[in-house]
Amino acid sequence: MIWSPVPNSNDPDPIAKAAAWVARLNAEDASEADWLALEAWLAARGGRRAAYHAAEMLWAEVGADAVVIDERLRSAPLRMGKLTINDIVRVFQGRWLWAAAPVGVVLLAVVIR
Amino acid sequence: MFAQFGGEMIKARKGVGPNATLQDICRQRRAALVRFFAMRTGCYDTAEAVVGEIEDAVDAISPEAAARIADPAAFLYRLGSDLLIARERAELESRSLEDEWRLRRTDAAAAQGSDEAAARALRAGAAAYRRARFDRIARGLAGLPAETRRAFGLRRLDGLSQAETARVMGQPAPRVERRVGQALTRLLDKVGWP
């Protein structure tokens, strides 16, 4: 293991918890209560602050260098599960249906005339 | 994107009235923000500086854009965290370049006697370090379980929101969030930071 927090018997795995906090607080529905809960968690002694700092900085690093890391992954033997056309279709399927509805109405009107 | 969290926005604004502006909310939360960033960084002066940057950034946001923010209080914490990360990344880069420069200058000057050679060595060294770092992160990601890797890749490499990632994967958002946390844990374990 490369990164090691200060050991604390009451807090055996601050890295996993810090990573979970980063995932929670980067979600679009993160609330003020979540941030205040993080503050309470950080207040405990041990390696929590260092663990959270490392998790947040690594998260930022991957995001900032996403294009290059993605290129590296593409050249790696084991490919990432990347976004495919089918995935994009699934995301936007509902929206396309809504967008298509008025077009259909107009076409129908033209045909009826 | 923000509209769906309108309920949370109204709830967050309850304490300062329904017409409170983002600046009002920022003023009301100032002490709490300083306390949070002092806890986060272990330094009161840094916390004050970050909150000052938050206030400057908030002043630059148009009322129309501010009105679209679903949870203004949570937004202030996110904004401050992003500003802090940007500040720390810039400091780290500058510090490591200075260290590297001193090292390379000594080596190159001894070998070739010129600052030009030292600068070339510095650029080559920094680029090699970054390449090695990218490779380690890519290898760390490639070694993750498939679903965990996919959730993290969609979120962090493709830049999808958690809700979009959940939709693409056909999984509930909390499960996606758990997988993203697990991926980051494994990356910290395998790649570390910095």
Question: Could you characterize the architecture of this molecule?
Answer:
The complex is a heterodimer of chains A (113) and B (194). With 113 residues, chain A is mainly α. Chain A has helices at residues 14-25, 32-43, 48-64, 66-75, 85-112. The longest helix of chain A is centred in the last third of the chain and has 28 residues, at 85-112. Helices cover 70% and strands 0% of the residues of chain A. The relative contact order of chain A is 0.09. Chain A has 5 helices and no strands. Chain B is an all-alpha fold and 194 residues long. Helices cover 80% and strands 0% of the residues of chain B. Chain B is built from 9 helices and no strands. Chain B has helices spanning 6-13, 22-41, 44-59, 63-67, 72-112, 115-142, 146-157, 162-169, 173-190. The longest helix of chain B is centred in the middle third of the chain and has 41 residues, at 72-112. Chain B is flat and about 60 Å long.
